[in-house]
From TrEMBL:
Keywords: Cell membrane, Membrane, Transmembrane, Transmembrane helix, Transport. This is ABC transporter permease. One of its GO terms (cellular component) is plasma membrane. Signal peptide: none annotated. One of its GO terms (biological process) is transmembrane transport. The lineage of its organism: Bacteria, Pseudomonadati, Pseudomonadota, Alphaproteobacteria, Rhodospirillales. It is found in: Cell membrane. It is a multi-pass membrane protein. Belongs to the binding-protein-dependent transport system permease family. CysTW subfamily. The chain crosses the membrane at residues 21-40, 81-106, 118-141, 169-191, 212-241, 270-291.
Length: 301
């Protein structure tokens, strides 16, 4: 009887999980398997792949290049693109955190719940507009003789055009603007649960505002800060629209490089290999983070 009950419970759980497992398997696992298979195939003569012809050339090309004699030499061009992507993503995280944490803290400290909800609503307003349209708006703002350039000249701050469009700076501005809500909302979700009596107790014990912030508020908001950093950093690595429009051809990021391989270059194996290299780096970073901050059995870190 007990065994039959357990089988029934297992069947119910399987039935409940089946739709989500089917979606994950069909839209994530199977494409990843297909990409892995394409990455080890031979490049087709006129694009695509040679099915059934296997080669590791795509992974070799990531670090090396062949000369006319077939000899291998180190090529760090693609590593530089990966490094640029990681640096820009890291800078975006820092800028989003510097702006997002005070914003989330201000929202969480408001007494009027209706006003807090209004502020959260205003944070989400950019999601109402297509990302492509928002980036074209930044082109109008950052270009020479654009709104910012003309305003700076009118105020006497500059004498020459600012020349910031199609630079890493413009990409950083666009990425920070695009992903800032992903930093604000998780931090606000953590700070909303903050017990202000803890802060009052810190003041009673002689702490000033800076020490109360560092000792009470930031540690309690740490889960939201970590979640926000991850939600900003990972999408930034694979961003395509913002680097394409605001960075131009001189500031390629990983997403643009992968798109070029599947598009203009028609080198599907190399594009798949680049995608898997990015996935491997992100997974290794996440594993390192999990190992570093996992909780010990006794409840410590």
């Amino acid at each position: 009887m007990l065994a039959a009950l357990r089988r029934s419970q297992l069947a119910q759980r399987t039935a409940l999980l089946a739709p989500s497992l089917a979606i994950i398997g069909g839209f994530m696992v199977l494409p990843l398997i297909l990409m892995a298979y394409v990455s080890i195939l031979e490049k087709g003569t006129h694009g695509g792949v040679e099915w059934g012809t296997y080669s590791a050339e795509a992974y070799i090309k990531f670090l090396f290049e062949r000369d006319l004699m077939g000899s291998l030499s180190v090529n760090a061009d693609y590593l530089q693109i990966f490094l640029r992507s990681f640096v820009l993503s890291g800078v975006t995280v820092l800028l989003a955190l510097a702006i997002g944490f005070p914003t989330a803290l201000y929202i969480a400290l408001q007494d009027d719940r209706w006003y807090r909800n209004l502020l959260v609503f205003m944070v989400t307003i950019p999601f109402w507009t297509n990302l492509l349209v928002r980036n074209y708006a930044w082109i109008i703002l950052l270009r020479n003789n654009g709104l910012i350039d003309n305003a700076a000249a009118w105020l006497g701050l500059t004498q020459e055009p600012i020349d910031v469009l199609y630079t890493p700076f413009a990409i950083g501005v666009g990425l920070t603007y695009s992903f800032l809500p992903f930093m604000v909302l998780p931090i606000y979700a953590s700070l909303e649960k903050l017990d202000l009596r803890l802060v009052e107790a810190a003041f009673d014990l002689g702490a000033d505002r800076r020490r109360a912030l560092a000792r009470i508020v930031v540690p309690l908001a740490l889960p939201g800060i970590i979640a926000g950093c991850i939600l900003v950093f990972v999408p930034c690595l694979g961003a395509y629209v913002t680097p394409e429009l605001l960075g131009g051809s001189k500031s390629l990021m990983i997403g643009n490089l992968i798109q070029n391989q599947f598009g203009a270059a028609r080198n599907w194996p190399f594009g798949a290999a680049l995608g898997f290299a990015l996935l491997a780096i992100v997974l290794l970073a996440m594993m390192a983070y999990a190992l570093r901050f996992r909780r010990a059995p006794g409840g410590g870190t």
